[in-house]
Amino acid sequence: MDLDKIMMWTRAERLGVADFLDELDDHEWAADSLCPGWTVHDVSAHLTLSNRVTLGATIVGVVRARGDWNRMTERMARDRASRYTPAELIAQLREGAGWTRRAPGAGPLDPLVDTMIHGQDIARPLGRRRDMPAEQAVVALEHVLRSPFYGSKKRLRGVRVVATDAEWSAGTGTEKIHGPLSDLLLLATGRAAGLAGVTGTGVQRLAEAL
After folding, report:
1. Chain-wide mean pLDDT for the chain?
2. 87, CA 20 to 30 Å: which among 22, 42, 69, 177?
3. H or E stretch including 202?
4. pTM of structure
5. Which neighbouring-strand residues pair with 199?
6. Are the C-beta atoms of 109 and 137 separated by less than 8 Å?
7. Could you report how far apart the first and last alpha carbons of the chain are, in Å?
8. What is the pLDDT of residues 38-63, one digit of tens each?
9. For the segment 68-105, what is each residue's pLDDT rounded down to a tens digit?
10. Helices and strands, counts by H and E, the chain
11. Is 162:178 a contact under the CB 8 Å cutoff?
């Protein structure tokens, strides 16, 4: 995959999220996101860390979290959210939109996936819409399905996923799930909110897995 193209997509997604956040009021910033226990403010703070956090800070954070990566990520996001206002975080997103630096352990596509997914984490509980460009969504989905980080192989074992808004499918299972790329990407990354937009024989099985 062309790295320049990935970076162009990532920059556009970051700027798009920044523009989206600009429209929110104080009540929406304090609202719960799709990430359990995280507010919109917390998720926004997390997005500014993807190209700012250092290896040293990550190691210290993991040690303090006793090896729990998710706990470390949550603490870092909440700490940053407590130190910066919404306007400051929006400015940081725009400032770093084109930066190529990645969080320790992240591959070229992970910042794109992170931004696309967290954009949905913010928008959906607010009853707002953020469209996903089809080409980027397909690339993000295929990366998530390949990567061991997201847990999608176990989550979607025995299930074939079929997009209804693009000519794309994946998996060899006998049970099927049909839905928009955005909902399939949510499901592949463990978000039950994606169930609302899908149909098929595999829905019940996936709901239980989630």
Report:
1. 91
2. 69
3. none
4. 0.89
5. 178
6. no
7. 31
8. 999 999 999 999 887 665 666 566 56
9. 667 778 888 999 999 999 999 999 999 999 999 888 78
10. 11, 3
11. yes
